[in-house]
Fold this sequence. Notes:
Strand content: 15-25%
Structural class: alpha+beta
Helix content: 25-40%
Order of helices and strands: HEEEEHHHHEEHEEHHH
Number of strands: 8
Number of domains: 3
Low-confidence stretches: 156-172
Number of helices: 9
Amino acid sequence: MEQPKKYKIEEWAGKRYGHLVxxxxxxxxxxxxxxxxxxxxxxxxxxxxxxxxxCGKECPIHKExxxxxxxxxxxxxxxxxxxxxxxxxxxxxxxxGGRGITICDEWLNNYDVFEEWALKNGYNDDLSIDRIDGNKxxxxxxxxxxxxxxxxxxAENPYTYMDKPKEKRYWGKRFKINGQIKSKTEWCNIYxxxxxxxxxxxxxxxxxxxxxxxxxxxxxxx
Length: 222
């Protein structure tokens, strides 16, 4: 069966996509020579939409590029961590430096030390730094690399509604009751209450647990 005209090798041979150069076409794939010397078959769409630019994850060029990307992301994590803990103008300072969360001296004063710890302790691009004990600071024994869901499961909400500045009141956090951590909506469904009713109680000084567990009293609005 004749190949589709747009994939005739005479028209595509020699074209470059990233570190791949087209040298042939077989079984609906372009045969590409990578700058590292390897040859690989690649679906045309993977080249056109830039899903592949090297011969694969084991390609030395791919590894070098990813290592550079990891260093850049790690540096951003390090600077963001310092901003949250020490910049009073940072939008999340009140959750970190504002309640005494600090960074150990070895990390605070030396990015290379932080990077070395990160690369030896499970860092990858899909994870973020997480404090095991949310009431303690950033130091090796209290930090790990965790997924977003692991961080959510590890989170507790130490504040009542009225503890927070008005502009920073936020309902996205999860709440811990009887050793279990769930979202506000999940707890409301369990106790048969509306989120609006719980919000109203918290606005009038109740903690989240009190707002969920206190029985409704006849003749009172909350």
